[in-house]
Automatic annotation (TrEMBL):
Keyword ATP-binding: yes
InterPro entries associated with the record: KaiC-like_dom, KaiC_dom, P-loop_NTPase
GO molecular function, one term: ATP binding
Segments passing through the bilayer: none
Every KaiC domain range: 5-251
PANTHER family for this protein: UPF0273 PROTEIN TM_0370
Organism encoding this protein: Staphylothermus hellenicus (strain DSM 12710 / JCM 10830 / BK20S6-10-b1 / P8)
Name listed for the protein in its UniProt record: Putative circadian clock protein, KaiC
Pfam family, one: ATPase
Keywords carried by this UniProt record: ATP-binding, Nucleotide-binding
Keyword ATP-binding: yes
């Protein structure tokens, strides 16, 4: 098993205040969870771009949009030209969207086999799957467990930093994901919280799943999407708050380290 190390995201606020001046684990899996529109895709894409600048290749798997729409989403960001360049030269390999005839379990499993081949052929060090919900939608529980097991070994065997994006239902107040569906070293929960003034704020907080990664206070920070750096922290949420999301999956219990 490769030796654990930590890789900077290139987003200074995230690295220093959320990730305890460490970065993301490698090999390791990061589960980025939140409602639509909170900045999950921006976080993952900014990370891939910053790592591409360090000559690391990445694979972005989108099951919800095609390459053109994905790129257009970031028009206006300072890194837009870099994103286009890295996708064109396959430093960031974009795989998606679904065929017009849709997915079924066979196509999902075939897609995952293609991902494994891509990681190997490109010698990629970073993988993003957007979203895990879409990836597992057409699979039975046993197939999901098999897929997650393969993803775990893909991450370890290839010394990857893997980011899994998870979508919460728009009006849900609880993370309903099964503990057996996902495996993660850390969870970044991006969600809205109510503060005492009654105004909702977008916040991000770290949920350390495995003690070997982080052992820090899980204090949320107000965060905003920034067109220059990707994500920017505003300040620590010190005043009383109530999270929209009451609980979060803590990973695949049958794979948890003891």
């Amino acid at each position: 098993m490769p030796r654990l190390k930590f890789i900077k995201t290139g987003m200074l606020d995230i690295d220093t205040r959320i990730l305890a001046n460490k970065g993301l684990p490698r090999p390791g899996t990061i589960y980025v969870l939140g409602h639509p529109g909170v900045g999950k895709t921006t976080f993952a894409t900014t990370y891939l771009i910053n790592r591409a600048k360090e000559n690391e290749k990445g694979v972005y798997v989108s099951l919800i949009e095609n390459k053109e729409l994905f790129i257009e989403h970031f028009r206006g960001f300072s890194f837009y030209d870099d994103l286009v360049k890295f996708i064109e030269n396959n430093t960031i390999y974009f795989a998606g969207a679904p065929p017009i005839y849709g997915y079924d379990s066979k196509r999902i499993l075939d897609l995952f086999e293609n991902i494994e081949n891509l990681i190997s052929s490109l010698n990629a060090k970073n993988l993003v799957i957007d979203s895990v919900n879409a990836l597992t939608l057409y699979l039975k529980m046993q197939q999901i467990r098999t897929l997650i097991t393969r993803l775990y070994h893909l991450t370890i065997d290839n010394d990857l930093t893997t980011i899994l994006i998870g979508e919460l239902p728009l009006f849900s107040t609880t993370a309903l994901s099964s503990s057996e569906e996902f495996i993660a070293d850390i969870v970044l929960l991006m969600d809205y919280v109510w503060i005492t003034s009654g105004v909702p704020r977008l916040a991000v907080r770290l949920v350390p799943v495995k003690s070997r990664m982080f052992n820090i206070v899980k204090t949320p920070y107000e965060v905003q999407v920034d067109y220059t750096v990707g994500l920017k922290l505003i300040h620590e949420l010190i005043e009383p708050y109530v999270p929209f999301t009451k609980e979060v999956s803590r990973g695949a219990g049958y794979m948890e380290e003891h």
